[in-house]
């Protein structure tokens, strides 16, 4: 029976894409919907998102941000105001043309992102330097009509948060942009156990309408990179178009400096693909909806074991997110597989012999290590173990990334690595967008970021051989 | 200066609708947007919604519900499956017809409510009686293309939660429907200090597609009723159309019994119109974003007072949602008005004399009562005072409702009350929808609910004089 269960998930080595979908569908994280490209986030998947929201929202508020809500609809004329912006988003906009029986005079976009609608309000609200900074965040759904979709990674609709801030000076805006990038890095590394590289996007890869885009880039276990969060310094691009001016202390009317930044439900995809294995999902304790699953092993003493299991549940429930699987219709082995597939960090087994010995059996999802723990020490033991698991998962992911980060000194090396190994390729770059495009066309890899942490690998651009400006990361990506 | 400030809000007696809009705009709860009928919920208004969400979400989870997320889009064919449902919603649907450059093969509705898309998934997920009950809630935006709109009360887009559950038996579904109605009643009365009448909707007023709709009805301070929350027993209307069947313990395939229930951002409108006065908003402490505002009165001793004010802020901030208004550019009087307008339940003043006497001045927003409190007792005093304010606001609203609930024994009396007094009218009803429609046409009042708490006012229907079945409430409403 156990064997059969495990077989339901395609091994990663056989077909990574199918493994990914299997984990999502069979782990009940999400499901396909009758709407093209849209997914349903099921309760188990949504609980992960709720934990992400709770932890991130606290960080946003601790850095002075407040939440608000702007309309899901953006009139076409508004979306079109900033030229680069509309060019970037127009191809994937869903258009509302009718309200009830009536045809609308102007088409309305379902928001792909909210810069334009928010700027139109900031123009109204911001009058004086005293009104600055404006530090607003929004949790909402957005729509991008993508051709090909994949649950959590690329869907026609997804959930995200978008921060939108306005500042008095360029320096203030840049500081905010980097502050939020650091909030993302710390969150993703500390709470999701995913190591990331902080850096700047190239001109080709930056956000449509931004002055500069910063990113945190993660490496998935199939060797493809994933952009986990971005923070944009918008400069005065939008404030000039939307006429967001303030009277400064010196009596001059000035345009504000703006930022925007966001992460989305694709973080759940990143969790799956960073930590998962052939048994399924592996969740970092800090965002796991269930941190400890108690599986009673009844033997011949069902009442005794069930009562003890309930007692232990009561003992743990104020400290941890814990559940007791007391279902009759499944064997313990089946339950073990189910909860491993669902990525619960700790399994606690309790049977007649354990009760006799005043002990519980504790099994880690990350290493499958099994330990016998005195019942009286269970709370303390689990507390420490959850921290260990959180840390170990980060270290494992970091080790994988290091092993899959390679240096290329010339184009042939780069091409060879991408074709035969995937992973990150570190290479020197002259700063010319044509060299970047050449790599994309020839290998499918894109310039993921210009990392803050620079190394000098050589003097020459990996493509054109001209003088190199920066060390950059290339990779195939999601 | 103070006088000028107060004048910014239109008095309720002069123009209630304008007063309502003034409170919202000047209190910075919300703003008009460039999108027809859509509003922006500003940080101060959104913080009220976040408090509502937090408190309600806990109640939902305590009653066994889990959150999930379903697509914002619903294909036209799906929306049309349940006949009554589509008839009720089609006139106000926003239709997406284009994705990027492409015209869609089938029009897609922006969800006005999610029964149909959720049912299509439940049909996939529910197989056995062991899968029941399914208890799912969703927090999201919905769109109804209304002709005339009013912030929080009726907007093209609004935020809400919608619970959708599936059960094994009719009794289970009815129990759930009433359980969630009671959750709403208790929440609205305890946390929002708004008294409500629990009852059932008439056939004319029930939800499109429901078997039975239950409601909680509140009375606004202009004498109009407001439906604050509804809970629907959907029967098997949707399960038969969407083929949601389960294999019961007896080996028979059966259709599930369903419920749905929701409250929305219109609760914020209810708070404004139940409690507000000519100075502006009055917020119940439990959902006030700021419970205590500290206003330092510098006199000649700015540093001394500011330091003490900060000290008190530190003292209070772990117990309450507190802010310190240390702005230089406004006088204390201006600040008093501002925070009264924004409905902060308690104002704490501190000046040089207070510091000398080791005291603070505490002013209630609900009664304007002013008390001097020893600094060392401040935390305890405020804790009790917030409870008192919460309770007093409920009692005031209840008193108003009682004074504005009248009995009509015949149609002339009913018409006279609606025309000259508004408020609730209690009257006997034969149960015939024609009598209900007659009242609506002649007076503009609708049958708000058939209350659970019945009284026998007479034997005869207030319209036709035939045998009365039930005592019901009529009112003009939002
Ligand atoms: Zn080059
Ligand atoms: Zn009648």
Helical content of chain A stands at 25-40%
Regarding quaternary structure, how should these chains be classified?
A: homodimer
Per DSSP, the total helix count of chain A is 15
Average of per-residue pLDDT values of chain A: 96
The distinct ligands, each listed once, are: zinc ion
Structural class computed from helices and strand pairing of chain A: alpha+beta
CATH topological fold name of the largest domain in chain A: BirA Bifunctional Protein, domain 2
User: What's the alpha carbon Rg of chain A, rounded to whole Å?
Assistant: 25 Å
* Gap between N and C termini of chain A: 35 Å
Return the domain count of chain A: 3
Low-confidence stretches of chain A: none
Approximately what portion of the residues of chain A adopt beta-strand conformation?
A: 25-35%
- Give, in spatial order, the strands making up the sheet with the most strands of chain A: 3-7-8-14-11-10-9-22-23-21-20
Major sheet characteristics of chain A: 11 strands, mixed
CATH superfamily of the largest domain in chain A, please? Answer: Bira Bifunctional Protein, Domain 2
Overall form of chain A? globular
The total beta strand count of chain A reads 23
Largest inter-chain interface? A-B, 55 and 55 residues
Protein name (chains A, B): Proline--tRNA ligase
Family (chains A, B): Belongs to the class-II aminoacyl-tRNA synthetase family. ProS type 3 subfamily.
Keywords (chains A, B): Aminoacyl-tRNA synthetase, ATP-binding, Cytoplasm, Ligase, Nucleotide-binding, Protein biosynthesis
Pfam family, one (chains A, B): tRNA-synt_2b
